[in-house]
Specification:
Structural class: mainly beta
Number of domains: 1
Strand content: over 45%
Helix content: under 10%
Distance between the termini: 39 Å
Radius of gyration: 15 Å
Largest sheet: 6 strands, antiparallel
């Protein structure tokens, strides 16, 4: 019997191993935000890290609360009628990743469990670290 990797989600698979980001410069961060009425969005739904090789690394949460990391380009926003809309745009200062624009990724580490797959991704830059994690189905980004 083939054993699955600790960070492989039973529903979404393993995604990509983000170690390829090491040595690449973070050129741009794009995020999607759920906007409803006049309420300010609390946190992004998705983020895309665009690196110096023009590769877009998508980080989001899965329906089973795993953390998904895949290579896909940002999608376009869309309207959800009375449920609001999702806007997708480059970030300027809305997430901890903004402080590291132009910096090179020095290290990447992951946390996961065999039951639920990847739960966290930590990206290390020269000036600090950013932790991407799933929390109750939401994407959380924090600085360290």
């Amino acid at each position: 019997m083939e054993s699955k990797r600790a960070s492989e989600c039973p529903l979404h698979g393993a995604g990509v191993r983000p170690g390829y980001l090491v040595g690449r410069r973070l050129e741009q961060v794009v995020a999607s935000w759920h906007l409803y009425g006049s309420e300010a969005p609390s946190r992004p739904l998705d983020v895309w890290l665009i690196d110096s090789e023009a590769v877009a690394t998508h980080v989001t949460t899965g329906s089973d609360w795993c953390l998904i990391v895949e290579m896909t380009a940002p999608f376009t926003g869309y309207d959800m009628a009375e449920s609001g809309r999702v806007e997708v745009a480059p970030i300027s200062g809305e997430t901890p990743l903004a402080a590291h624009l132009g910096e090179t990724v020095l290290a990447v580490s992951e946390e996961g469990s065999s039951d639920s797959g990847r739960l966290a991704l930590e990206i290390t830059f020269g000036s600090g670290r950013v932790r991407c994690e799933t929390w109750s189905g939401d994407l959380r980004l924090s600085s360290k």
